[in-house]
Amino acid sequence: MGEEKKVMFHEMELDDRILKAISQLGWPNPTLIQETAIPLLLEGKDVLMRARTGSGKTAAFTIPVIQKILNLKNTSTHQGIKALILSPSKELCGQITSVINDLTLKCSREVRCIDISQNGDMQIQKSLLADKPDIVVATPSRALAHLKSNSMRLKEDLSVLVVDEADLVFSFGYEAEIKELLGHLPKIYQAVLASATLSDDVLSLKKIVLRNPVTLKLEEPELAPSSQLQHYHLFAEEDDKAAILYALLKLNLIRGKSIIFVRTVDRCYKLKLYLEQFKISSCVLNSELPAAIRCLSVEQFNRGRYEIIVASDEKALEKPDGGLLGDEEFGKKRRQKSKRKKDKESGVSRGIDFQHVSNVINFDFPLDVTSYVHRAGRTARGNNQGSVLSFVAIKEKPLMDAVEDHLSKGFNGQQVLQKYEFALESVEGFRYRSRDAWRAVTRVAVREARLAELRRELLACRQLQGYFEENPTDHAALKRDKALHTVRLQPQLAHVPEYLLPAALRNEDTEADVDAAAPAPKKKKQAGNFGSAKRHKYQARQSDPLKSFQLKNLKKTPAADDT
Ligand code: AMP
């Protein structure tokens, strides 16, 4: 590999206010796409960038947009909409807007942005647009509706157009709208297309939107390098997997937000109910859940309401809207002028970012290499640190060997999946508790939990509101069932008494429990690791719990340190 010099943010001639915001976001240096695209966009070039979600592409186009607006403001006091950013779904528009808000933290008065994709009164949006915000983020239909009704005019002032997830624009059936929308733009403006693939559709969009563009097809590695993403494995059979997970979580050896993958939807609930008994809360994500719940789970996870997501398949994460229709199929349906207009803008599909996932835990080993790569790709996004810990039962060993074979090719034959040594015998007490708790989650309990989820959805369903108003007894009956506890809770399980702790972690002076309810130490966003518990609860102890656990191969990542 060549020793190419990395361009840093401060070498890009960016405004100080942007640099400050970037540093506040904790981004130490640009990602590959940012490093390449930002200078080109600052030069004023049209750019077609192939970039996947997680590559940092949103900032790759928003940073130059903000810089350009600040430059324009230096020379003119005339207020106008200077940038239009189009994205195929409301959720993605929301995500882009939030990145812009973060990046304009220090210049929010100079650079104003509104997102008109969200369901809102057109009239209210009209009045917001009348203020001519500098940046408008929208789905193509929303933008076009406002252009047609004259509540937004771009002919005079627009200076940049961005189309994000350009390949989805076609599959969402926005093609005609984009073409019509171009007629409302000035003759000269800078344009950017960002797309995960360079399909024929994108290439035809490129022809109509871009002029003499630079095409960036960055060869990004399948997964982040080992300096950023560590892979561990641990041999364990069924009962022990549960006990180890419980011990790792309770002893705070797992830091930061985690996604735990299991094999089936039932196991999702089993694991959730198992953890619940120890007062470890998590939310479940699988492709059988209604779209609204899936999106809500992702949103709550991102907002930090949950630290743990238990997922049964990576497809549910790729498409939190469930991929009820695949992109292709969705596109076809749109082209046939389906009447289900609502779906068009709420299709989250690709692009939704699970933010700051520090750990991916394969409770069940994925069934093939692609699936491993997909799961692992959920962490170490942008330039963040991350770790993957896979529990491997004997029968899963061939699957792990296949993954090791595949990954090591990209690392010059070096071993990639490091052994995570965990002496379960030193936490024997955890094992007993765990066995009981695991068995307490019966099939009936799992079924009840799934039903409870559905019931919750029914109660929340807008279309049924009218029915419930007319039939209040049905509503009450459903509501009453909601309180059903599918597993008998044993409050004592929430605490880990001193005697359960391995010798190295015991505190001679106190009888204090490791309090389950106590939050894990505040981790930094990118603190992805399975680390030492000694820094917080066991701060004063001299013996290193890592040694007593024989977690020899763990590297202490600096990111885990409190700073
Ligand atoms: P995106 O590909 O735009 O969806 O970004 C993926 C994630 O990377 C987001 O959570 C960003 O906050 C994060 N990110 C973007 N740029 C950087 C950077 N230069 N350093 C660290 N994280 C970044």
TrEMBL record:
Its EC number(s): 3.6.4.13
Region (Disordered) location: 327-347, 511-563
Record carries keyword Nucleotide-binding: yes
Superkingdom of origin organism: Eukaryota
Keyword ATP-binding included in the entry's annotation: yes
Reactions listed under catalytic activity: ATP + H2O = ADP + phosphate + H(+)
Residue interval(s) of motif Q motif: 7-35
Example of a GO MF term: ATP binding
UniProt record similarity statement: Belongs to the DEAD box helicase family. DDX56/DBP9 subfamily.
Protein name: RNA helicase
The gene coding this protein: LOC113397817
